[in-house]
Amino acid sequence: MNAPAGPADLFQAATAFWHSRVLAVAVELDLFSLLATGPASLEELCARLRLHPQPTEALLGGLCAIGILEHDEHGYRNGPTAATWLDRASPDYLGGLFALAGWQFPLWTRLRDLLETGQPQGDRAGLGFDGDALALRRFAETAEGLAADCGPALAAALDWSAVTSVVDLGGARGGTLATVLAAHSHLVGTCFDIPAMAPLFDELAGRLGLAERMLFRGGDFFADVLPPAEVYLLGHLMSDWDEERCTDLVARAAEALEPGGTLVVLDSLIDPDRPSTARNWLVNLNTQLVNPSGSVRSTVDCADWLRSAGMSGVQVRALVGSESLVLGTKPRR
Ligand SMILES: C[S@@+](CC[C@H](N)C(=O)[O-])C[C@H]1O[C@@H](n2cnc3c(N)ncnc32)[C@H](O)[C@@H]1O
Asked: Whose CA is nearest to atom 8 of ligand 1?
C-alpha cells in the first residue's frame, strides 16, 4: 500500500483549480502575447489591460510562483513555457486548451448533479459541432493541444517508411496528422471531419506549410464513403459514442483500409495492465458532463472491436502519458 498523502498534498488537491483559473484568465486577457513584445511593469499592464492593480499584482505574483512568468527590475516577462506555448504569435500556440477548459469549468461545479441524475450538465453544442464557429475553434484548438503531445509520439511509434497514405478519421483541424506528415516527408494524409472544420484545417495546413500533402475531406463518418488509405487513424473517438457506434466506426475504417494496411486507435483508454491509465476515468467524467453517450473504453474493448472488424495481429501499446494505441492489420486475403 502507498504511504498516505500529507496535508500539503491534500491542500494542493483542494485548490488545484486556483492554478487553472489564474492561467485561463491570463490567456483570456492575452497577457502572454503582450509580454512577448517586452517586459512590462504592473502599472503598464494594468493600463494596457484595464485591470485593478491590487488583484493584478496577486495574479502576476501567482503566475511567477508557478513558473509561468518571471519578474526582475525591468518588470514582468514571459518564462520559457509562456513564450513557447502561450504567445499567440508563436507557431506552437496552445492557449486554446484554456479556452475549452474555461468553458468546462462551470460544468464541473455540477458534478454532483451528474452523479445523482446520470444526466449531462452542459449542452454539447458548446463544443461547436452544431454550427457555432467560435465554439468549434475553441474545441479544435484544444484538440491541437492534445495533438502536440500525441502527434510526435505517434510519428515515432509506427514504422511509416513503407506507408504512402494515411487518413485521420475525426482528425479535427489536423494537428496530429500534421505532426506525422511533418516527421515523414514522403507521406500524404487526409483528415476526415465535419465540413465546418474545413476553414480551421486550411488555416493550420497553410500555417505549417503542409497544404500540398495534407488534404481535408468533409463529411459524416457514419454515413459517407470513406477514402482508401494504408493507415487509418481513429484518435479520441471511442469515448464519445455508444458501443454500437464504436463498432460501426471501426468496421467502416477497416472497410476503407487497403489490404495489408494498419488500423490505429489512439485514445485515453483504461488499460488493465497499466495502472497509470486510471486517470482516464477523470477524462471520461469530463466527457459525461456534456455527452450522454460518453463511456469509459478499455484497451480490451478496442482490441475486440478491431478483431470483430477482421483485423489480425491486434496489439495494445502504451503511447505517451495515459494514452494507448490499439493496432491491427487488414489481411491481404
Ligand atoms: C473527440 S474529437 C477527436 C479529435 C482528434 N482525432 C483527436 O485525437 O484529438 C472528435 C472529432 O470527430 C469529429 N466528428 C464528430 N462527429 C463526426 C461525424 N459524424 N463525421 C465526421 N467527423 C465527426 C469532430 O468534429 C471532432 O473533430
From this structure: 235
Pocket test for ligand 1, best of 142, 192, 194, 225 (most atoms within 8 A of CB): 194
Q: What is the pLDDT of residues 301-323, one digit of tens each?
A: 999 999 999 999 999 999 999 99
Alpha carbon distance 127, 297 (integer Å)? 21
Both 155 and 222 in a single domain?
Answer: yes
- Statement: residue 1 has pLDDT above 70: no
Domain annotation covers residue 125: no
Residue 51, number of CB atoms within 10 A of its CB: 17
- State whether 72 and 178 are in the same domain: no
Residue 72 lies in a domain: yes
Q: Would 132 be classed as within a structural domain?
A: no
Query: Ligand 1 pocket, 194 CB below 6 A?
Result: yes
Is residue 293 within 8 Å of 266, Cβ to Cβ?
Answer: no
39 inside domain:
yes
- Could you report the per-residue pLDDT of 4-22, keeping only the tens digit for each? 889 899 999 999 999 999 9
Q: Write the pLDDT tens digit of every residue in 73-123.
A: 999 999 999 999 999 998 888 888 888 888 899 999 999 999 999 999 988
Atom of ligand 1 nearest to the CA of 221: 20
Residues in the chain: 333
Tell me which residue range forms the domain holding 244. Answer: 144-274+292-329
Distances (CA, A) of 141 to 144, 267, 270: 5, 18, 25
CATH number of domain containing 72 = 1.10.10.10
Cβ of 143 less than 6 Å from ligand 1:
yes
Q: Measured between alpha carbons, how far is 169 from 248 in angstroms, rounded to an integer?
A: 13
Say how many Å lie between the CA of residue 285 and the centre of ligand 1. 18
196 Cβ inside 6 Å of ligand 1:
no
Does ligand 1 have an atom closer than 6 angstroms to the CB of 221? yes
pLDDT tens-digit series, residues 31-45: 999 999 999 999 999
Cα–Cα distance for residue pair 108/200, rounded to 1 Å = 28
Whether the CB of 129 sits within 6 Å of ligand 1: yes
